[in-house]
Design a protein that fits this description.
With 112 residues, this protein is mostly helical. It is built from 4 helices and no strands. The two termini are 13 Å apart.
């Protein structure tokens, strides 16, 4: 991924993902809301990059699997946190995992 003006660096993205995946008791709901919003913004940018790369290279091995994962991520971003602390933590962790996958796909796409 190439950093552009205003775009977060790979390290900044990973830092957000790491915060969301921290072990232990759930973070306060307000922090989970902040993490969700940050992850949704990151996912939006990464998703668009990966989607574009996939559309340019549909004949590559694993295309259908990656396409299905992209569709699943699109759905996951529409779920919301829910009212409970546990549901919010589960959702933030799912978004962080999706963000991490997208980040790895950006790197893989650059090599295609």
């Amino acid at each position: 991924m190439t950093a552009t003006a205003g775009a977060p660096s790979r390290d900044e993205i990973q830092e957000t993902v790491d915060r969301a995946l921290v072990s232990g008791p759930p973070l306060p709901y307000s922090e989970l809301v902040e993490l969700e919003q940050a992850l949704l913004l990151l996912i939006a940018g990464l998703w668009a990059t990966v989607d574009e790369s996939e559309r340019r290279h549909p004949a590559t091995p694993g295309y259908a699997r990656r396409r299905a994962r992209l569709d699943g991520i699109r759905h996951q971003t529409s779920v919301g946190l829910g009212d409970g602390l546990i549901s919010a933590q589960v959702q933030v962790r799912a978004l962080a995992t999706d963000c991490q996958w997208l980040l790895s796909q950006c790197a893989a796409g650059a090599r295609r």
